[in-house]
C-alpha cells in the first residue's frame, strides 16, 4: 500500500482513492499526464456529479494540495477541491462567459435523516478573477476530536505562496455520516458536456502543508 502522505502523480489510481458514484471509465484517465477528468454530469449539485474522486483525510491535521490545469474547461464548468460529506464546502475554478474565477462555495447540505437528497447546493461567498490556465488549490482540515473542527481553503498561482479564500468551514460530526469527511477532486458541467481538467499532482501533508509544491 502506498503511503497516505506525500505526492501522488496519478501514474495509476492507488487503492486509497474512491469514487463518489460508480465512475464512467470513458471520461477519466490516469497515466503520463496525471489525472484527466472530463465533465460527466450536467448538474448544479456537487453531490450528483459523477467521477468525483475522494481521498480520506489524515488526522489530526492534514493538508491536501492539488495542481489543476483548467484551460480546457468550458463555459458553465466547475472544478476543484472539496471537503465532502453531508455538509460540504469547496474551492475551485468556475468558467462563465469565457472568464475564469477562483471561488469558495459553502453551505452544501444533504438530508441524512431520510433519503440523502440534496437540501442545498451552496453559495459562493468569495471569488477572484484568475488567468494563466494553472492553479494550485489547498485545503487544510483539522479533525481533532471535539467541537469546532475546521477546514481552511486557499489557492496559489505559483505553487508556493497561498492566498486564503473564504471563511473557515466548520465540519460536522453527526452520526448519520460516520465515515467522516474526505478530500474530493471534482469536475462537472452546469451547461453542457465537453470540458476537461488535468490534475498532475495531489499532495497530502501531515500538519499545515507548508512544503512548496512543484
Protein architecture, described:
- This protein is mostly beta strands and 214 residues long.
- It has a single domain (6-206), classed as Jelly Rolls (Sandwich), CATH 2.60.120.200.
- It has no helices and 16 strands.
- The protein is globular and about 40 Å long.
- The two termini are 24 Å apart.
Write the layout of secondary structure elements.
Layout: E1 6-8, E2 17-19, E3 28-29, E4 35-38, E5 53-56, E6 61-69, E7 77-84, E8 87-96, E9 99-110, E10 118-130, E11 134-142, E12 150-156, E13 163-164, E14 169-170, E15 182-189, E16 196-206
Antiparallel strand pairs: 1-16, 2-5, 3-4, 4-16, 5-15, 6-11, 6-16, 7-8, 7-15, 8-9, 9-10, 11-12, 12-13, 12-14
Residue share in helices? Answer: under 10%
Distance between the termini: 24 Å
Low-confidence residue ranges? none
Give the SSE string: EEEEEEEEEEEEEEEE
Q: What's the helix count?
A: 0
Q: What is the top-level CATH class? A: Mainly Beta
Protein name: Beta-xylosidase C-terminal Concanavalin A-like domain-containing protein
Domain Beta-xylosidase C-terminal Concanavalin A-like: 12-190
Throw out a few tags for this protein.
mainly beta; Jelly Rolls; seven-stranded antiparallel sheet; 16 strands; 0% helix; 50% strand
Short description:
With 214 residues, the protein is mainly β. 0% of the residues lie in helices and 50% in strands.
Amino acid at each position: 500500500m502506498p503511503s497516505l502522505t506525500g505526492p501522488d502523480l496519478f501514474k495509476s489510481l492507488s487503492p486509497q482513492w474512491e469514487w463518489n458514484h460508480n465512475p464512467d471509465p470513458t471520461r477519466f484517465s490516469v497515466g503520463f499526464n496525471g489525472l484527466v477528468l472530463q465533465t460527466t454530469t450536467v448538474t448544479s449539485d456537487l453531490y450528483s456529479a459523477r467521477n468525483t474522486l475522494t481521498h480520506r483525510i489524515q488526522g489530526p491535521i492534514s493538508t491536501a494540495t492539488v495542481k489543476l490545469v483548467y484551460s480546457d474547461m468550458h463555459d458553465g464548468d466547475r472544478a476543484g477541491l472539496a471537503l465532502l460529506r453531508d455538509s460540504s464546502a469547496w474551492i475551485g475554478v468556475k468558467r462563465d462567459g469565457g472568464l475564469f474565477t477562483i471561488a469558495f462555495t459553502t453551505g452544501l447540505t444533504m438530508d441524512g435523516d431520510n433519503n440523502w437528497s440534496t437540501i442545498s447546493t451552496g453559495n459562493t461567498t468569495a471569488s477572484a478573477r484568475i488567468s494563466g490556465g494553472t492553479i494550485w488549490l489547498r485545503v487544510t482540515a483539522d479533525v481533532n476530536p471535539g467541537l469546532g473542527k475546521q477546514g481552511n481553503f486557499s489557492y496559489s498561482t505559483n505553487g508556493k505562496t497561498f492566498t486564503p479564500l473564504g471563511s473557515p468551514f466548520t465540519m460536522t460530526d453527526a452520526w448519520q455520516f460516520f465515515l467522516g469527511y474526505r478530500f474530493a477532486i471534482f469536475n462537472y458541467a452546469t451547461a453542457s458536456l465537453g470540458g476537461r481538467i488535468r490534475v498532475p499532482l495531489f499532495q497530502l501533508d501531515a500538519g499545515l502543508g507548508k512544503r512548496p509544491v512543484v
